[in-house]
Specification:
This protein has 155 residues and is mostly helical. The protein is built from 7 helices and 2 strands; from the N terminus they run H-H-H-H-E-E-H-H-H. The protein has a two-stranded antiparallel ribbon.
């Protein structure tokens, strides 16, 4: 191995550092745009809620966390105005968590910002290199590409 090859333990650290730098940049911009209390876990939770809404149990399963932890997460999303509990049309006794307009806007703006960050990376590194890096990662990452239980795994 040469000095430029690096060490095996560096690969996951570099991948995580890249992830972290993208997320930190995105959240700094979201804070400037009126979402100062938004956290990465909120994005995962709003994804778990889905466009049709979900029960706290469903959110917990999707995130890989307990129903109680999901309930606390939903409480926080409600307090921030990103989600609301409404009567569940499938179960008269149940409550459904739905995204509010503010929650939907947060996800939409996040998606736009991710595109801007990717474009900056492509400008800095070259579009071909970024595309090749994405293709290589897709080849190495088992499906599905995105698992919502990331926040539970990190916690």
């Amino acid at each position: 191995m040469t000095e430029t090859d690096g060490y095996g333990f560096e690969l996951p650290l570099l991948l995580f550092a890249g992830f972290r730098s993208i997320i930190d940049e995105l959240h700094a911009e979201l804070a400037r745009e009126g979402h100062p209390q938004a956290r990465p876990a909120h994005g995962f939770a709003l994804q778990a809620v889905g466009p049709q809404g979900a029960t706290a149990s469903e959110i917990g399963r999707r995130l890989g966390i307990s129903k109680q932890a999901a309930g606390k997460t939903v409480d926080r999303l409600e307090a921030l105005g990103y989600a609301a509990r409404v009567p569940d049309p499938r179960d008269a006794r149940g409550r459904l968590v739905v995204r509010t307009a503010r929650g939907t806007e947060l996800l939409a703006r996040s998606a736009e910002l991710f595109e801007q960050v990717r474009a900056r990376w492509a400008a800095e590194l070259g579009a071909d290199r970024v595309r090749a890096m994405e293709q290589d990662l897709r080849a190495m990452v088992p499906s599905p590409l995105f698992r919502l239980d990331v926040s539970g795994w990190l916690g």
